[in-house]
């Protein structure tokens, strides 16, 4: 196994290599995801509609977190063009998809981010910004919190710990301090405050190769610690399992923990989560306008199974009944209480 094959700088070859690793020799003794479904007398995964259009506007980010499944960073050049952004707004206008979920990278660094928000707001869609917080206090972006508030954008913000050392270990030196500064700004604008209508969700993901703890219990601890230490409030906490993709996969391979982690995910398979995995009601679009079942499949270059795979051709009737493209990474969504962009699947 050449570890250099799974290092930074994603290419198609890189993505295929990741997918091969997930299907390959190192875990040959583990079942495939579809076999696990069969063992539990569950049908293959199929979509059940499209409630959320999740768009990944590119890999440019002001951070380089160790667990990043996008392999994002300041040196990345992949960025959604105005033409694709317009195709997304056209699809939203044509179709009855209630939510636009914008992710990246740091999506706010895309030059079309504000256009997308303004247009989706005019269409009266729910808008989610998956925000790393530090971008809100970076030079050139300090008016962003007010912009987000003015357009009623929900902020879903990564904060892997309420302790500075743990957070900075995963996300980089100084990230925690700047995240706290950003959270205070958001709170001042009404985010996280009861009845303001401006929702602030925090996202926890484990620092190492373990499953997240109980979402409900961790939310209580976050609420208590952030209030007492920093006078910060928020609406809810989501816990998310790290999927073995990109930098996190690289880290698992380098530290010799890949097989153990995959075994943990497979052994924790919970069939009750399967009907609720997010790909059943979410459609993912990459910065070039290609369609995927989820952001993880996007990173693995596993396209939707339908013939039409472009945002310009999006046809809800066909795509809403598609078979989902699965792989061993799907055990990450179905382990324990399950994991999705909306947090734990089961309470
Ligand atoms: S995890 Fe988020 S904030 Fe960190 S590098 Fe990746 S996209 Fe950027
Ligand atoms: S990784 Fe999760 S969301 Fe993506 S296809 Fe697999 S089960 Fe669905």
UniProtKB/TrEMBL annotation:
Residue ranges occupied by any Arsenosugar biosynthesis radical SAM protein ArsS-like C-terminal domain in the UniProt entry: 211-344
Pfam families to which the protein is assigned, alphabetical: DUF3641 (PF12345), Radical_SAM (PF04055)
Domain Radical SAM core: start-end pairs: 55-192
The entry's keywords: Iron, Iron-sulfur, Metal-binding, S-adenosyl-L-methionine
NCBIfam families: rSAM_SeCys
Protein's recorded name: Molybdenum cofactor biosynthesis protein A
GO molecular function: catalytic activity; iron-sulfur cluster binding; metal ion binding
SUPFAM superfamilies: Radical SAM enzymes
Native source organism of the sequence: Bremerella volcania
Cofactor: [4Fe-4S] cluster
Gene3D superfamilies: Aldolase class I
Alphabetical list of InterPro entries matching this protein: Aldolase_TIM (IPR013785), ArsS-like_C (IPR024521), rSAM (IPR007197), rSAM_ArsS-like (IPR026351), rSAM_sf (IPR058240)
């Amino acid at each position: 196994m050449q570890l250099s094959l799974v290092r930074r700088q994603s290419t198609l070859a890189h993505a295929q290599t990741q997918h091969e690793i997930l299907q390959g020799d190192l875990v040959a003794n583990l079942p495939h995801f579809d076999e696990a479904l069969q063992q539990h007398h569950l049908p293959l995964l199929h979509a059940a509609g499209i409630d959320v259009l999740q768009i990944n506007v590119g890999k440019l980010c002001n951070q380089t977190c160790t667990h990043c499944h996008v392999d994002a960073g300041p040196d990345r050049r992949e960025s959604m063009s105005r033409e694709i952004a317009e195709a997304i707004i056209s699809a939203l206008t044509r179709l009855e998809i209630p939510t636009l979920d914008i992710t990246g990278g740091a999506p706010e660094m895309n030059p079309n981010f504000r256009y997308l928000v303004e247009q989706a707001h005019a269409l009266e869609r729910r808008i989610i910004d998956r925000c790393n917080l530090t971008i809100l206090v970076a030079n050139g972006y300090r008016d962003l919190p007010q912009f987000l508030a003015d357009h009623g954008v929900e902020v879903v913000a990564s904060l892997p710990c309420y302790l500075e050392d743990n957070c900075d270990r995963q996300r980089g030196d100084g990230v925690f301090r700047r995240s706290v500064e950003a959270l205070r700004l958001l709170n001042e604008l009404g985010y996280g405050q009861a009845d303001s209508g401006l929702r602030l969700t925090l996202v926890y993901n484990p620092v190492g190769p373990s499953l997240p703890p109980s979402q409900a219990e961790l939310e209580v601890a976050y609420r208590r610690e952030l209030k007492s230490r920093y006078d910060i409030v928020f609406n809810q906490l989501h816990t998310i399992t790290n999927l073995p993709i990109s930098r996190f996969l690289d880290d698992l391979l380098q530290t010799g923990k890949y097989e153990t982690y995959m075994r943990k995910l497979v052994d924790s398979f919970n069939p009750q989560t399967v009907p609720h995995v997010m790909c059943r009601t979410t459609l993912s679009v990459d910065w070039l306008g290609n369609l995927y079942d989820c952001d993880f499949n996007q990173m693995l270059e596993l396209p939707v199974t339908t013939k039409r795979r472009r945002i310009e051709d999006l046809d809800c009737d066909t795509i809403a009944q598609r078979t989902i493209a699965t792989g061993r990474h799907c055990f990450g969504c179905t382990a324990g209480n399950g994991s999705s962009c909306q947090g734990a699947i089961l309470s």
